[in-house]
Amino acid sequence: MDATPPRSVPTEATSPLVRVRDLVLTLPSASGPVNILRGVDLDIGRGEAVGLVGPSGSGKTSLLMLLAGLEQATGGSIALDGLTVTGLDEDSLARMRRTRIGIVFQAFHLIPTMTALENVAIPLELAGRRDAMARAAEALAAVGLSHRLTHLPSRLSGGEQQRVAIARAFAPEPALLLADEPTGNLDAKTGEAVMELLFALRARLGTTLLLITHDPALAARCDRQVHLADGKVV
């Protein structure tokens, strides 16, 4: 009788949400090709918070942009929730971002001619949600901005603008939240309040988080830290 145990097959519950294999990004320059990422392998579990750390120029933001489908890899593969991201066309990538990925940048990237409510509702409307405005109002209430729904970004403080950006990222309830130095444009006190909010929302919704930060205290709040140097995980 064969005593070899059956090989376990990963299920949706146990397989990583993000799987990166041998990811390469090479960009042209006047002096020749520049190797930004040099064969990155990375798994991120469902519901996990990962701090991505490393020196400036190590490839952290490039990796985030590839995960978001905002840049195309030169080689290797990215899978998100079982969907192979590398090789998708622009329309498919846009649909994936609208439904599966939230992004918070250091710059707030709010549309200046639209109110806080409209800024949050836009991705929901593009995704075809009929409850876009109601959901946007709920998301803004969750970040403490129910009293700012009709305000334009120019009438909001930096901290309030980043809260709007966080509400916009969380409103579709994405599986993955990508955050690139989200407190970089804020003073220390406001930045701390914004991060408390981000981690609280992430915990409540069970969202997987990849956070780029130079702040050791912020990185330490994550479940795990991944160190990037010279385009490689070290």
Architecture overview:
The chain is of the alpha/beta class and 234 residues long. The chain has a single domain, classed as Rossmann fold (3-Layer(aba) Sandwich). The protein contains seven helices and ten strands. It has helices at 60-67, 90-100, 116-126, 132-142, 158-170, 188-205, 216-220; strands spanning 18-27, 34-44, 49-53, 75-80, 83-84, 101-104, 176-180, 208-212, 224-229, 232-233. The strands form two sheets. It has a six-stranded mixed sheet with strand order 6-7-8-3-9-10. Strands 2-1-4-5 form a four-stranded antiparallel sheet, covered by helices on one side. The longest helix has 18 residues, at 188-205. It is globular and about 50 Å long.
Reconstruct the topology from this structure.
Layout lengths: L17 E10 L6 E11 L4 E5 L6 H8 L7 E6 L2 E2 L5 H11 E4 L11 H11 L5 H11 L15 H13 L5 E5 L7 H18 L2 E5 L3 H5 L3 E6 L2 E2 L1
Parallel strand pairs: 3-8, 3-9, 6-7, 7-8
Antiparallel strand pairs: 1-2, 1-4, 4-5, 9-10
Helix pairs in contact: 3-4, 3-5, 4-5, 5-6
Concise description?
This protein is α/β, with parallel strands linked by helices. 33% of the residues lie in helices and 24% in strands. It has one domain: Rossmann fold.
List keywords for this structure.
234 residues, alpha/beta, six-stranded mixed beta sheet, four-stranded antiparallel beta sheet, 24% strand, disordered N terminus
